[in-house]
Every structure is written in C-alpha cells, then in structure tokens.
Write a structure and sequence with these properties.
3 helices; globular; 58% helix; 72 residues; mainly alpha
Length: 72
C-alpha cells in the first residue's frame, strides 16, 4: 500500500493541475493539440481523490461544471 506521503504528493499534483474555471484536471501534459482534454476515467479518479481528502470545495467546482455541460 502507498504511504501517506505519496498520496499527499499525488493529491497536490491534482490540485496544481486543476483548471480554475472548470474544476477539471487535464488528462495530458505537454501536448498542445490535446491540452485541456479530460477523460472520464481520469476524472473519476480525481473525484475519488477529492473525496478521500475531504476537499469538497474542489469537488464542488468539478461537479458544477459537469452538471452545466450535461444540461447543455
């Protein structure tokens, strides 16, 4: 099992890479052609991480954006 320090580092990476406008975390880094793309699997992991760390403010940003996009 991963040690807490590793979980903390992964979580900080997610927070740094979260889009402030959408709340989403990009699935890729460094490729401008697919910048800001997020895949469902990756976003599900992000939601789980925010839940594990009880970071409901960040999770709320994420869900609000998805809710707005799905209602279209």
């Amino acid at each position: 099992m991963l040690e807490q320090a590793n979980f903390d580092k992964m979580y900080q990476w997610l927070k740094i890479h979260q889009n402030n406008r959408t709340g989403l975390v990009s699935s890729f880094e460094g490729d401008k052609e697919i910048a800001n793309w997020s895949f469902t699997y990756d976003l599900a992991l992000v939601a789980q991480a925010y839940t594990k760390f009880s970071d409901f403010d960040e999770l709320r940003k994420f869900w609000i954006f998805l809710h707005i996009m799905l209602k279209g």
